[in-house]
Amino acid sequence: MPLLLIFSLVIALLAILFAIQNTTVTPIRFLFWETEGSLALVLFIALVAGALISYLATAPGQIKQRMTISSQRKRITEVEGQLTSTQEELQGTEEHLQQIEEMNQAEGEKTDESTSTDEGETPLVE
Q1: For the chain, how many structural domains are there in total?
Q2: Model confidence over 96-124: pLDDT tens digits?
Q3: What's the domain range around 58?
Q4: What pTM was estimated for this model as a whole?
Q5: Which residues contact 93 (CB under 8 A, 6 or more apart)?
Q6: Assigned domain for 2 exists
Q7: Which of 26, 73, 96, 121 to pair with 10, CA 20 to 30 A apart?
């Protein structure tokens, strides 16, 4: 940003030097209008008119870009919210799965104990 400011100040200084050196009165004609003014004033008015036209030409694109950025920021916020809720849901599901696995292990141990006692008994022969 400072580089742009320095560049702008240099341009402004050159414009002032130009205006000081070119004070010649020049006739100005536009459509049906006719007057006289200094060359520097005429060029300054032309410069301002060009800058204004340039700004007006680029304004719709800048407005559209700002609107797009705004809508994208809103969308990012929504998606981040969905991500957070999905992560919380996943964490809850993982906890639930871990509880189920613990219950299955506990049931497996009970089954192992009951089969080992059954195997230790001698079968009855008829």
Answers
A1: 1
A2: 999 999 888 888 777 766 665 555 555 55
A3: 19-85
A4: 0.49
A5: none
A6: no
A7: 26
